[in-house]
Structure formats: structure tokens, C-alpha cells
Amino acid sequence: MAEPMGFFTDTTVCIGCKACEVACKSWNQISSTNGGQNVLSGDSYDNTRKLDGEHWRHVKFIEQFSEDRVSESRWLMMSDVCKHCVQAGCLEVCPTGAIIRTEFDTVVIQQDACIGCRACLPACPFGVIDINPVTHTAQKCTLCYDRMQVGMTPACAQACPTASIQFGPLVQLRKKAEDRVAQLHSQGKEEAYIYGDEAILGGLNSFYLLVDNPEVYGLPVAPKLPSRNLWRSSFAAAFGAAVLGLWGLVSLRTRKRGAKAEGPSSGDGGGDGGKKGAAP
Amino acid sequence: MHSDCIVIEGSNMAECHPVAFRWVMQAKLAGATVIHVDPRFTRTSAMADIHAPLRAGTDIAFLGGLIHHVIEHEKYFKEYVVHYTNAATLVRDDFKDTEELEGVFSGLHGYDGDPLNGFVGQYDTASWQYVSGDTGTQRAGDGAMTGQVSQNPAKRGDMAGKGPEVGANPPPQGPPFDGMVRAMKKPPPPRDETLQDPRCVFQIVKRHFSRYTPEMVERVTGCPKDVFLKVAEAITRNSNPERTTAFCYAVGWTQHTYGPQLIGTCAMLQLLLGNIGRPGGGILALRGHATIQGSTDIPTLYHSIHGYMPALSTLKQHETLADYLKTETLPASYWSNTPKFFVSYLKSMYGAAATVENDFGYGWHPRIAGDHSHLPMTIAMMEGRVKGMFAMGQNPAVGAQNARLQRKALAKLEWLVVKDNFETETAAFWRTSPEVQNGELKTEEIQTEVFLFPSAQVGEMDGSFTNTQRLVQWHAKAADPPGDCRSDLWFTVHLGKRLKAHYAASTLPRDQGIKHLVWDFDADHPEPGSRIPDEPDARKVLREVNGYRSADGRHLTSAAELKDDGSTTCASWIYCGIYPEPGKNLAESRVPDAPEGPQTHLGWAFAWPSNRRTLYNRASARPDGKPWSERKKYVWWDGKRWTGHDVPDFPLTKAPDAPAKPDAIGLDAHAGTDPFILKVDGKGWLFAPTGLVDGPLPTHYEPVESPVQNPLYKQQTSPVLKMWRRDDNVIASQDPRYPHVLTTYRLTEHHLSGVMSRWLPWLAELQPELFVELSPELAGAHGIDNLDLVRIATPRGAITAKALVTRRMRPLQIDGKTVHQVGLPWHWGYQGLVTGEVVNNLSALVGDPNVSIHEGKAFVCNVEKA
């Protein structure tokens, strides 16, 4: 396996130019909202609204202004993307194995194996994946797998004019991020921190430097895998099954008792049903 | 990148120049303070350490306040100011300042020239001169260019009688012109280096800005005093031998009826702070279109020819070649070489036909006769005085001021050629414009014949871009353009060939110019595999621009090789050396400095002139030639010659203690401590005796349309601005019907009138609809909610747009009154994938008197729920 690769997005130098959104679409040839004839959202300068099947990069705009514009006056921008989680929920739930982990430790949906079943959509704690309206398959950032395979930088990072989006070996990115946080702290910007270290899903291979709480950026504070709940749901299922089974046994015994009185006909019927169910 | 503090004012740099903004962010990462002074809180403000809000159009008051602060608190860079600026130079006794004349300067009188030029008044600049000596001609920005008759006493009345040698020995009228230039030389003006003489420039500047106090700044601009003082503190802390501050501006400064004066205010401030000619200092004019810097160097402007030489004019003493050279040559300064530059230029126009006997074809060259810029041209079109128009990469139906008038003017043309990517609003005005929709224009009655030529894109042609910092970068063709699309080079060269063929048989004197025009750009061999065998060779254009020896065609390597006798051919002296030999195009060089190198990247492309990255860089060293500090070491005297990290902008072996030679011309007339080699006195000008027609010093005037009375002076607006009063160009000021300030601008997501973005789905979806930015305070007062349709009206018309209500807009307190600002991006039109109303329907045809730029950044409006 090659070295794990990822993105470090330093939101403090993001100018919200959306070059990443366009470069991503240009390289990956992704369609636009209503062929480009979108409507104004009225939500700051954000008109593409979210990550989905036709927006693999999305720039968020968060206006924080007090009435006097003095005590608070900030306009936060953040280019969001698939987190390429070390523990990836989408990958776990994909029934066809279309979602794979690559040699770069990134997560990719193989379009030719995706059946568009939507199972991965709710499995992603970040709401990254959606169905592309043209291909009807689940789509998201591939971290430009095709470009990486030939040693190129992903399109968004290449286009980013201020180096807000940085691409590289994860080890190096983690170090850069650490240094940048230290620099900001030394400049009195104590609020700067990294979102996406090992504490979150074993580490996000696409991680962020933020200056406000995750919720402000629309990110979950403690994202969970669908499989995290698996033992609970499994237990519930097993318990339920046991209860049902017991109830079944009890009712069977009851029915048998009744049958003794009424005759054996219903038991034959049940046998037919079982046969039918097994036939395919 | 080398700056310790960066002030962005008059520009939304992050949004409109995101690639250049990369370097601002690099500087910030290295610890620089970033300041944004702007009416709106934009994506640039979001990245800044300080955002100083101000009312649109009041930047002179803001910068004047900084000048006042710097002088009052003695924060100026004294040694720099005394030695490198004209602070010590004495000005004539009869000069009267705005302090004495309630907001105007001495010499104001009425304008009696062609009304088409638009002036409301005119200055006689005689009293603005130095006590004695030459201050040079009126160069770029000359009023004569925009329609004023040249009034320069240094070149007119004064010279005939008082010039030292004139009359006794009339100089010869042909090359070499050195004798003639020498005869024009005058002794340098007197100076008082103690800066105490009341007539010295420093004292005049001090008095002029005495009323620009922090309190006055707040009253005029609305910027809270404490924020203003924070800015003042940051720039003065970062301007000294150890540190430098840079200013970045764009059309937020230029598009005013006092745009050049506004930039001049900044230049004065930067000179006082010692930030010119030093690494990380300077004033960066951000250029908003691809190679628009190149299009002023090799100009598409009417008022200058290549390399910033003034256009030949019927309004100046330009009868003969000798007349032109006498009028336009500065005997002291590098401009003393004007005869060499100009004759070499004429050789590039007319080749072998240009000879000593025929003044190198001088008489064949077209001349201007007034202001032929866009504003009066539109009026002339309306009046039926213009027959045809080429719109190449230009979409006036959306992008030009008072766009309704523009579209109606298009209908008066006999023919219109549009060469662009798509059928623009200009190309389609005759069928889809609002005027056709509402019946004002009827398609069947429009006589204009419209030709639409599809354009090739940048990747489909060879060529060059010259960007903001004068860096010329070559780009190579990657693929043929599709279908009939052709490069602008192809179009222009073939049009020229057809015109030459058309006039080939003419014997009329007026046609001799085009007959003799050298027009040899055909490729020697068609590009292998290309569908377009007749694509011209862009390198041949570059060769003509660079220059060569007329006799044998050997490429020139530097402007120092240019001659005034016709033996050299060079279209643009400032680009000379870019193509020093066949096969060596320096615009193609791509060798960056190593990370530990000086970071001037002299091996990356070519910066004119002479691959110099910072102009006037001799000022980066002390008068004795040593660096001001180790930290800001850049160019220095090593005991024998000038050397350093950049190409020195100074004679290489001229010692720092070299005295000025009183009888010499050119740079020999300057001392070893005179860094400003293009100035006649070698000094940076804190006071401009010539070059500007609206005053030697900047003064705060209100925009033509303003909701308030000028709090600083009785004079409300510039007394010499350009205005065209017409029923279809109504102006209203301090009119209660239009109580708000309206400003227009661009967004990152679109480019200009949208021709390169509104047709593209990937960009259209990002900003799909026109919107108007309003503060919640203003929106609340009119019952407007976010996304409501809003009607915005000015005296020229009204449009509707969706409301974007945001606290990024804020009301300001101006002179005790609440003033709201309304913001409109102007990218939309009636063609393309996403459409919207034309914001420039609201703007007005008014202009600056120096360069005829319009006032698109500040006018008045009203808003109401639609």
C-alpha cells in the first residue's frame, strides 16, 4: 500500500472563491444544479447549498455579525468535502462492495459497481454522499483517485489560490496542521483547533483547521458510525427474535392444542407456506 | 510577500484578484498585518486583521487623514523624504491652495473648448510650477489628451524667451536630437532641505492637509475614529528602515471623478513613509482583466502610443517631428531619450518608408483631436457622428455606464462588429434588449448591420499576458479553436491586410499611413497539423515590439541600444530586451528562485523595463548607497557599482555621491541620490506641478452624485470634472428622492459583463441571479425581507433585484446623518444561461478630467419593495 494521503483544509485562509468547486466539476465532469439555472438561496454567498451527487466540493459561508458589527464581525468560509474516514460508514454498509479503500487509504465509490441502492447515504455521518441525477449512482469526492495514480494533485487543491486546501501524505499534513495551530495560538488566536484527528472515526484523512465549534460549520461534534450501534441493534434484534420465537412456540403449542380439538388442516397449510418461501 | 503590512483599499482583492491574493495570504502567514478599507465587508475583509468601513468615494479624505497623522506626529521617514522627494523644492509665490480658495486651486477658469469633451472648467497651471526651472511637460494624464489645450508654461511662453540657449543658436531640426534637447535644459529649482520655507512643498502639503483630522475623517467617511487610528498606527509601525507597507488598489479608486488624484494621495503617503522603491512597499494597481496591463503598455488607449508616449495631437505643438519631440521630451530624466524611443517607434510603423527626409513618416501618423474615450464616443454615437464600431472582448450594452444610452447609441451605428465567445448583449441588442422589448427601439427600424465573429480562447493561441506587476508571461497554444473561431491576432492581421489591399492604389495623402504601414506577421511555415494555415506568428509581433537593427534585423537586447536616426526599429521601448535573440523569448523563461534565494525570481518571465521587478529601486538604499537595513536589503552600491537582488533602476556605475551636472541632459543631470529617474528632478513628487489637470495636490470632493454636502470645503465636486448633461443622462445630488449611496462591483464567481461566466453552467450555478445587498437596518425601514424583490432607482432608471439582507452592509454616520449604502454586482444581462437586469442602466456618464474614467463606484439611489 502506498502512503496514506489526504487533505488539510485551513479555513483561516479560505477566501470562498469556489475555485475548488469548479475545478472539481471540470476534472470530474459533473453536472450542475438544473443545468446551471439555479436559484438564489439568500443564504450568504452559498447557492449550491450542500455536498451531494453533483457537488463533491462545497464552500460554506457563515456570517457572524453582531448588531453593532464591533463585538462580533466575522465571515467564516470553509471548503467542505468527503472526509475519507479511516473508519468509513459508507464502506461498511455498501451491499455490493462498490465502495472501496484505495492504496492511498482513501475511500472511493466505484461507479460501475454501484447499484444506486442509497444504503451509504444515511451511513455517512457527514451527509457527504448523494445520488447523482444523471448517472443515478451514489457519488462523492474520490480525492481525484485517477490523478493520484499518476502522481498529480487533486484538482481542487491544485486550483486553490490561497493554499487553504493542502494535499499530501497524511503524516506531513498532520505536522503542518499542528504547526499552523501553534502559530495561530502564538498570535493570540486561541480558538484555532484541528477537527478530524484520531478521536473522530479513527481519524479523518480530510481534516480541517477551524476557529469555531464544529456545529457552526455544520459538522457533527462526535460523529458515529452506523456500525457503532450495531451491537445494540443486534442485541435488540436477537432479543426480539427470541421473544418472537418464544411467542411463536407458545402460540404453536396453543394452536396444537386447538388442532387436537379441530383437526390437522392448518398445520399442512403452514408447511405449504414454508415450501413456497424456500422455492426461490 | 515581502510586506509587513498590506493595506487593500479600493479593491476587493480576494474576490476580484484571488490569484494575486495568494501572495497576500502568504505574507499574512509570515506575520504581516492585513487591512481592508472598504464600504462593504467582503471576502477580502474576512481575511483582514482590520476592516475599516467608509462611505464610497471618500478615500481621499481617509488617506488625507493618514497624511495629516503622519506629518502631525512626525512619523514620516525623514531622511527618505528630504533626499528622495520634492518636499524641499520651492513652489511659485502666486500658487494658491484650496485652504485659501475654499476648495479650489489658483488658475481656475471656464472651459471654452468642444463641449463633447465634457469639461465643466479648466485650470491654468502656471502658478503650480516650481519657483524656477523645468518641471517637464504634461505627460500621461495630460489634459490635452482628454481635450484641453496645453497650458504648460514650461513648454510655452516661458521657454521662448528665458531658455538659456534658445534664440542664440537655433538647434538643428533632425537627428541627432541631443542638441535640441540640451537647448531645452533649465537649471534645477531651488530647495530648502530644512523643510522650513513656507513655499517649500513639505510646508504646502502640511497646510493643505491640516484640516484632515481624525475627527474630520470620521465626519466625511463615516469610519469610526478609533478604527481609523488603528489603521494609522499599523501603517506607521510598519514603515521604517526595517519594515515596509504596501498598498493595493483597483477600480474602487480609479472609477471616480477624482480617480487619479486618489491614487496620487496614496503615492504621497507612501513617499512620506519611505515605501516606494523598497521590497514589500509600493502601490500595486491590480489589473482586473487578462493582460489589461499589456493593453496600456502596447495601448488600446486612444491617448497614448506604445511605451507611454503621448498620442500625436492636434491640440498640442505637434506639427512636425521636431515640434513633437520639443513638446514631449524632458531634457533631464530618462525621458530625455524620447527622440530615440519615438523615432524607433515610427520605424516600426513605416519601416523602410520612414526616412530622415520625411521625418520618419511622422506626418502619416493619425492624431487625436480631443477626448475620444468611451464616454464622449458614446455621446458622439448618439449624435450620429460615429459610423461603425468594433467591440472585441467588450460588452458595452451591459458593462458601460448608462447602459440604456449605450444600447440606443448602438442603434445609431451603420455597422457593428462583435468578436466574442458568445452572442453577447451588445451583439443581440437589436433583438433582445429591454429597449426592443418595451418598444423604444423597433428591430425593423434599426439600420445597424451587426457582424458576430466567434473568438478563440486563450488555450487556442500563442500570445502573452502582462499582469499587475508588469510581468510578461508567454502562453502557448494547446489546440486549434473549434469551427470558425479565430484568435484576435488572426482577425486583426487579416483585417489589416484587407485594408491595405483596399488602399493600395490610393494617392490621397491621408492614406499614405496605411499604405506604408509595416504589416508583416504571416507565419513563415503553417503550424503542422493545424486547421488554420493562415494563423499569424505571434512571435513576429513580439519581435517588432522588442525591436531590431533596421539594417540587418539583429534583435536588440536593451533600450540603451535605441537610436534617434532610424537605425533601430522598436515598437515599444519599455519591452526592449524581452526577445534578445531569435529562439530566446524571455517571456517564456520559467526558472524560479530556490526557496533560500532572494525571491525576486528574475528567471521567471520578463518584467518590463529591463526585467526589473521593483521600479525606482535605488530608493531601497540610503543616500550613501548602503541598504536601509539588513532586513530590507535589496539594491545597493558595492563601492564600484550598483548590485543586489533585482536589476538596479539606476546607472550602474554612477556613485551615490555623484553630483548633478548642471549642463548635462538625461540622467547626468541627476545626482547619485536621485532615484526617480523618470522625473525631471529625479525626485518622488509630493506636489505635482504638471501631469494633472485638476490640481497639484489631492483634495476631497464629493462624487458627482452624493447624498451629503462636502463637509470639508465649499466646493462640492471637482471643479473641472467631465459631465454630459442630457435628458437621457440626468444627474441628481443631495436629492431627497435618492437618499442612499449606490456602489457597483464584481463577484468572484463571474467575470465582468458575464460573457466568460454566465454562459457556463459550472459558474452560473454559483451566482445564478442578480441581487442587491442591503443592511438589515435599511431593509427593515422599507419592509424588505431577504429574497424579496426590490426596486432600485436612480435618475437614469430603475431595475429590480432580489434582496440579500446582510449585516456585512452597515449604515454610517456622515456629518451627523445616517447614510445607507446599497450594493449591486453588475454581471447580469439579457443573454446567456442565467440572466438578470442590467445594473449599469442605473449609472451615469460622468468622468474624471485627466483620464476620462467614469464614476461607477459611487452614486445615489432609492430602494423600495417591488
TrEMBL record, chain A:
The chain crosses the membrane at residues 230-250. Gene3D superfamilies: 3.30.70.20. It comes from the Bacteria. [4Fe-4S] cluster 4 binds at residues 94, 114, 117, 120. It is found in: Cell envelope. Residues 5-35, 73-104, 105-134 form the 4Fe-4S ferredoxin-type domain. GO terms for cellular component: cell envelope. This is Formate dehydrogenase O beta subunit. It comes from Chondromyces apiculatus DSM 436.
